[in-house]
Amino acid sequence: MNLKALIVDDEAKSRTLLKRLCEEYCEGLMIIDAAASVKEAIDKIETGQPELIFLDIQMPLQSGFDLLEHYGENIPFEIIFTTAYDQYAIKAFHYAAADYLLKPINVDELTEAVDRVKARIAKTTGNQHLVELKRQLGKKEFNKIALTTTEGFTFVELSEIIRCEAEGNYTSIHLKDGQTHLITKTLKHYEEILSDRNFFRIHKSHLINLDNVRRFVKGRQGQVEMVDGKKVEVSTRKKESLLLRLDGYNR
């Protein structure tokens, strides 16, 4: 699959390096142009009609996110964000299932991100995740998460997630409405991005939403009963920490 791409970065060295990496390692990807600002990028998008933008976040005058604002909810291209470490932005990317590359750019991560973009375009799943990212960035807290499925993206409220269960390198997300989504992410991935949103890993195979615990069932190890009636075993080493969390939450 051939793909036209535009690089948007205020640093000339970064533009040159990324162009070289793309040409050397990303088969079927054609860098049609580069821009040093959002204003310049908008002009080149109109003339070149790229299908993919490599978008630097931290630029003077206007950030990469201003380009999202310009297009509103009608974003006519895919985006791979490029950035130095920005904790808030990276968390937003995870919640919205948006692709990003940390500088200095790793070749394997670059090719994997490009392959994911190609797959989305081939399936015509649309840019709903970028629209959701724009919404998330305007909030102080992320209340919705994008789940990447074989069909595309499913967006769910965090409050609707009862628990996440490890399935090898995949994760089953169990929702209040009875639906279960099998996601191509590890349980560790969800533990990292949800632990500060009242999710707690009670077992090597289970991450639960403490808001959706019905009761704790005593026993040698103990179990938690979730709002859907499912009882989940608590590992011995997690039991004390869980009880402290539940006690503090219920006070």
Question: Can you describe this structure?
Answer:
It is a single chain. This protein has 251 residues and is α/β, with parallel strands linked by helices. The chain folds into two domains: 3-137, Response regulator (Rossmann fold, 3-Layer(aba) Sandwich); 144-250, LytTr DNA-binding domain (OB fold (Dihydrolipoamide Acetyltransferase, E2P), Beta Barrel). The protein has helices at 12-25, 38-48, 64-71, 87-96, 107-123, 128-137, 187-194, 236-250; strands at residues 3-8, 29-35, 52-56, 78-83, 99-102, 144-149, 152-157, 161-167, 170-175, 180-183, 199-203, 206-209, 213-217, 223-226, 231-233. It has a five-stranded parallel beta sheet, sandwiched between helices. The longest helix is centred in the middle third of the chain and has 17 residues, at 107-123. The protein is elongated, with a radius of gyration of 21 Å.
Strand order of the largest sheet: 2-1-3-4-5
Distance from first to last alpha carbon? 57 Å
Q: What percent of residues adopt helix (DSSP H or I)?
A: 25-40%
The unreliable regions are none
CATH topology term of the largest domain: Rossmann fold
With helices defined by DSSP (H or I, 4 residues minimum), what is the helix count? 8
Please indicate the percent range of residues in DSSP E strands (runs of 2 or more): 25-35%
The biggest beta sheet, please?
Answer: 5 strands, parallel
Radius of gyration from the alpha-carbon trace, in angstroms? 21 Å
Structural class: alpha/beta
Record field, number of beta strands: 15
Mean pLDDT comes to: 90
Total domain units? 2
The appropriate CATH architecture of the largest domain is 3-Layer(aba) Sandwich
Main CATH class of the largest domain:
Alpha Beta
Q: Give helix and strand order, one letter per element, not per position.
A: EHEHEHEHEHHEEEEEHEEEEEH
